Amino acid sequence: MNYSRFLTATSAARKPSAIRIMTETLSRAPKSVISLATGSPNPNTFPFKTAVITVDNGEPIQFNEEMMKRALQYSQSAGIPELLSWLKQLQVKLHNPPTINYPTSQGKMDLCVTSGSQDGLCKVFEMIINPGDNVLLNEPVYSGTLQALMPLGCNIINVSSDEYGIIPDSLKEVLSKWKPEDSKNPKRNTPKFLYTVPNGNNPTGNSLTTNRKKEIYELARKYDFLIIEDDPYYFLQFNKSWAPTFLSMDVDGRVIRADSFSKVLSSGLRLGFITGPKPLIERVVLHTQVSTMHPSTFTQLLVSQLLHQWGEEGFLAHVERVTDFYRKQKDALVAAADKWLSGLAEWHVPTAGMFLWLKIKGIYDVKQLIEEKAIKKEILMLPGNVFYADTSAPSPYFRVSFSSASPEQMDMAFQRLAQIIKESL
Ligand SMILES: Cc1ncc(COP(=O)(O)O)c(C=O)c1O
């Protein structure tokens, strides 16, 4: 892989910050070292002294005074070492990336912690995209991605998808305007990456099948583009034996994978992690050095303590409990849809995540119905148009989340919605 061809001039120009390097050195230094170097504030002046946080199994996570001082201090930009090593092991166990023992220059697997996966994705996009670059994705797409991509001035090429995710033949067709060797000629502007949410896509709830992933990966090899695998709903797959990821197929070191703790541990902690080839992860970390400096030390320590306390098995058992919850929520929402919306709307039952994507029959554009009529009846949902680059285009689709409402509320919401649809036809 020639990673330099994927970097913007800004990203390529990033240099390590001397102060950040000193912070790293200090974190590894023995207690005998006298530091007059960094501008870290003196934690003895901080007003917070200790904390005990109770986990749902009743076990406490203790922050004694020493630990608290560390939790409240600056830390390494890539993430605190004990969390990084735990996460690396997890990635190896779950995905067994072929690149794990590659030399760095050939894309050895590396990982960094970010302030939520969104922060990591945003940095990845800024690392790669120059104005006018072509990027591939499948609309409808997570609006956070659109809002991050569009100001960068890239040319978004939509690849058709269905209930099983991106359609490889459609991708083939899109790519057929180039020759594989065009990737060596910058003037040909071959797509830099394909972005996709492979499990429980937001907003459609669709998941990409393994065979399609394999076909897409082969096309990425042929036309030499990166794959950005944004997978915050990976842990919320409703069927056992989780789908193999792009990372698990990555023999070239061309996959950048975004994981999130938001859906399984908590969203307000703002912790996610980006896994990918070391030459690219290093660029993300250099960006972090000059932006957030590092994700919150306190939340990293909290999560790291919890994960070490649980072990991988405990973490996966927790994930299973969370998934059970969302599976039941999904069943309740689908039951409510079957009961009230049959004949009025169409949908596919999601196999992961927290969203149902519905199409109202016979209404060309549901924006007004969702944004005005439904709100008047006290139901909040998102109209489909917000998940397209062209938000002005009419859409008969809307997105419903089954994360928070109770089964009774879901039933009531769809009963009201059915009434509104009937009145609007
Ligand atoms: C597809 C997708 N990517 C990324 C994110 C951002 O997640 P995080 O909270 O980890 O930043 C979300 C959040 O909803 C999402 O749905």
What does the radius of gyration come to? Answer: 23 Å
The biggest beta sheet is recorded as: 7 strands, mixed
| Element-level helix/strand string | HHEEHHEHEHEEEHEHEEEHHEEHEEH
| Number of E strands | 15
Q: What percent of residues are in strands?
A: 5-15%
User: How much is the average pLDDT?
Assistant: 96
Give the strand order, joined by hyphens, for the main sheet. 3-11-10-9-8-4-5
| Category by helix and strand content | alpha/beta
For this structure, the quaternary state is single chain
- Shape summary: globular
Ligands and ions found: pyridoxal-5'-phosphate
The level of helicity is 25-40%
Q: Low-confidence parts, pLDDT < 50 over ≥5 residues?
A: none
Total DSSP helices: 12
- Report, as a whole number of angstroms, the end-to-end distance: 55 Å
Q: Can you describe this structure?
A:
By secondary structure, this protein is α/β, with parallel strands linked by helices. The chain is 39% helix and 15% strand. The protein has helices spanning 9-12, 18-28, 65-71, 81-95, 116-128, 143-149, 168-175, 210-223, 278-290, 297-341, 367-376, 407-424, and strands spanning 51-54, 60-63, 109-114, 134-137, 155-158, 161-162, 165-166, 193-196, 226-230, 255-260, 272-277, 345-347, 355-360, 382-383, 397-401. The strands form four sheets. A seven-stranded mixed sheet has the order 3-11-10-9-8-4-5, with helices on both faces. A four-stranded antiparallel sheet has the order 12-13-15-14. The protein has a two-stranded antiparallel sheet with strand order 1-2. Helix 5 packs parallel to helix 6 (143-149). The mean pLDDT is 96. Bound molecules: pyridoxal-5'-phosphate (PLP). Pyridoxal-5'-phosphate (PLP) is lined by residues 116-118, 142, 144, 197, 202, 230, 232, 260, 262, 267, 272.
